[in-house]
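PROTEIN DESIGN WORKSHEET
SECTION A - STRUCTURE
LENGTH: 119
C-ALPHA CELLS:
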C-alpha cells in the first residue's frame, strides 16, 4: 500500500462515528471523528511494518467539550491496524499536560524544533 493510499484510508474516517470504552467496564463513549491529522513515522520494525502517528478531534454526544486522541496505526503489508492504547482526553486536560511538559527543557526542544513541512 502506498503512502497516499494509507493517508486516504486514514482520512476517510473523518466525519464517521467513533466509539470506545474504558477497560474497567465504564460506559461507552459514542460520537464523531470531527478532524484528523496523520503523519508517517520515520520508524519501522525489523519485519518492515510502518507506523502512522495520528491526532484526532472527537465530539461525543454526552460530552459538552471536544476531546483529542493521540494514537497510531501500524501498517504491516496491506493490513492497517489501530493502536490498542491511545491517550484520549479533553482539550483542557491535554492543554494542562502540555503546559506541564513545557516546563521541561527536552519537551521545549521538541516543540521549538517543529518543522512546518513535517507531513
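SECTION B - SEQUENCE
RESIDUE ASSIGNMENT:
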Amino acid at each position: 500500500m502506498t503512502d497516499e493510499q494509507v493517508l486516504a484510508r486514514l482520512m476517510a474516517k473523518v466525519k464517521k462515528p467513533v466509539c470506545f470504552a474504558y477497560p474497567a467496564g465504564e460506559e461507552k463513549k459514542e460520537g464523531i471523528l470531527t478532524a484528523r491529522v496523520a503523519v508517517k513515522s520515520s520508524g519501522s520494525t525489523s519485519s518492515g511494518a510502518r507506523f502512522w502517528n495520528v491526532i484526532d478531534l472527537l465530539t461525543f454526544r454526552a460530552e459538552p467539550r471536544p476531546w483529542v486522541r493521540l494514537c497510531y496505526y501500524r501498517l504491516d503489508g496491506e493490513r492497517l491496524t489501530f493502536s490498542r492504547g491511545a491517550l484520549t482526553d479533553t482539550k483542557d486536560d491535554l492543554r494542562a499536560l502540555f503546559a506541564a511538559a513545557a516546563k521541561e527543557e527536552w519537551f521545549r526542544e521538541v516543540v521549538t524544533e517543529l518543522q512546518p513541512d513535517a507531513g
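SECTION C - NOTES
The beta strands are 17-20, 29-44, 50-60, 67-76, 79-82, 87-90.
The first strand starts at residue 17 and ends at 20.
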